[in-house]
Queue: 3 jobs
Job 1
Amino acid sequence: MPAPTARPAESARPAATAGAIGAAGSAEATEADQTAVADSPKPTDKSAESAGPSESARPADPTPPPASAPSADVRMWHRFLTLHAHVEHRLSAALQRHHGLGLSEYRALGFLAAAPRSELRMQELADRLGLNQSSVTRLVSRLNAADFTYRDLCPDDKRGVYTVLKDAGRARHAAATATYEATLTAALEEAAESDGGAGAAVAALRGTLG
């Protein structure tokens, strides 16, 4: 009688099935994890949200309009101021070097010398020199200290203060006048030679005011 055919052990089948299920479950779990990661919200970069627009995104500063050319009067006045500054510098240097006088001091002595009784109120002297009250007070103090002038009060108005020219001041002004005039002429000629426009202005002024 033939021997019965051996049947596979029952215990092996569940093991194979369990292995297949485990593999399938692992694959499903992996796919589920990947899906969950893909679907999960991405973290927000707060610093990027709070940051303003980049420098490159900002509009460029508008180009300023071109400056308009100065008028003829402005150009004329600037040339005159240049001429004035040149002449005043030359006069100031010459008077200080040769006579120990500042330019305003020389002119103050000249105004006093030409005034009636050789005296002027302080305010009158300030107006003629183009100085404010404090500046003319300091200037007169220097003239008084040099014994060129003295301070006097008006007999009718005790508040009226006069500056009176003394003989020493008159003599110093007279001695400095030749230097002043020679230097002035030389400075004007220098300006005329270096600048044709200044030369024309000097010629026009001499013709009108000379």
Note: The longest strand covers residues 149-153.
Job 2
Amino acid sequence: MTQQASLGEGRPAAATPTRRGQLRPRLLDLFSCAGGAAMGYARAGFTVDGVDIAARPNYPFPYHQGDALERLAALIVSGEIERYAFVHASPPYQDKYTLTVGTNQSQGWGRTHEDLVAPTRDLLDRTGLPYAIEQPNGRAEIRKDLTLCGEMFGLGGIRHRNFELGGWITVRPAHVPHRGRVRGWRHGEYFDGPYVAAYGNGGGKPSIAELQAAMGITWTDVREELTEAIPPAYTEWIGRVFLTSNVLGVAA
């Protein structure tokens, strides 16, 4: 597996002194997938290390292939977690995701999904570090401290994502009204609209190029990675807010 050390594209913020004495704070990206969240944090000013159980050759930063919770637990036991100033986690959620509950289970497809939100939170609390847990709209049991969507950043997909913040707080931004529908087929009827459906591979779904443009992601052309990713604009916003309001002091 090739480890990519480049920070890739983006415009990282200027080096900022932190409470851990680093010029550029280090962030641990758990369940990192193809690096949508990671790229946003890097643009905000973090050095990012990823962890994902799958091989992710398109991930644009150094990463460890393995179980994310086992890796986090090992870092806590060894004390190496002290290298980090912040942790982001996107644990599996599919058994409580709206699309899965409303479609997969109703169709009797019977796929078994993991729900690792609670054990992820438990380990994150043990680190003593500020963190963010990301989940899509659905039934995952997290606090919705932040809810972000593509329209807030001028993107071509709505893609609502909720974030539970641990060890720090910020003002919740106002949601921006949508300009229309998501383009595609619904129950046999086609609807046009300004947004593409950044999920699945059925009829009316966007092309790879359309997905890349809608998400603001250029470094992977794998549909599965694009449909699972967080738009980097979301975590760039979170990272900049955190660095501006928390890093120079002690996080709340």
Note: The first strand starts at residue 26 and ends at 30.
Job 3
Amino acid sequence: MTTGNEPPVPAEPDPTPPGPTNDGEHPNWERPRNGMGRFQRTLKSVRRDAATAEYLADHPGTTYDQLAERFGYCHRKDAYNAVLRAKADIARPAITKLIGDESVELDALYAEACAILQRRHITVSHGKVITWLNPETQQEETLLDDGPKLAAIQAALRIRESYRKLHGLDQPAQVAVSGSVKYEVVGVAEEDLT
């Protein structure tokens, strides 16, 4: 029997988190993670990012708070990042094509540098081929010039460096910082510090 003075019973919590998206699912609900525990983008999250950016383009006065509420992001910063990811997704095919074209050009330049390395280069001075007397055969032979080969080696190294930078293969520089800090207390006797 109830008297009407009992405290209210709390309602059962809703099993779905707040902030549903267009398809009724929350974006953080069972998102896959990679081996390092970070969230991975799925096809659904890519589509949601694109829809967020498209909505912002179609409705210019929309704030990121409104986007977060409409598309189920937890914070306006998440909506802002979604728009940035969508922009990057749109630009990615063009960037990938550009990187591919640059790679082909660098490969052609590298092949030419290697071909120069394989050739024999003779020394020419004032329009005349320089020769020398080979002491073993006692015959005049053309003097080989190593300058073009050295220049081709330098060019090949620069081309490979450009290739590594283009593809992000270089390791970032690590900076080691060491040192110590010395504290000096002024106005207190040394025996009072113990």
Note: The longest helix spans residues 76-118.
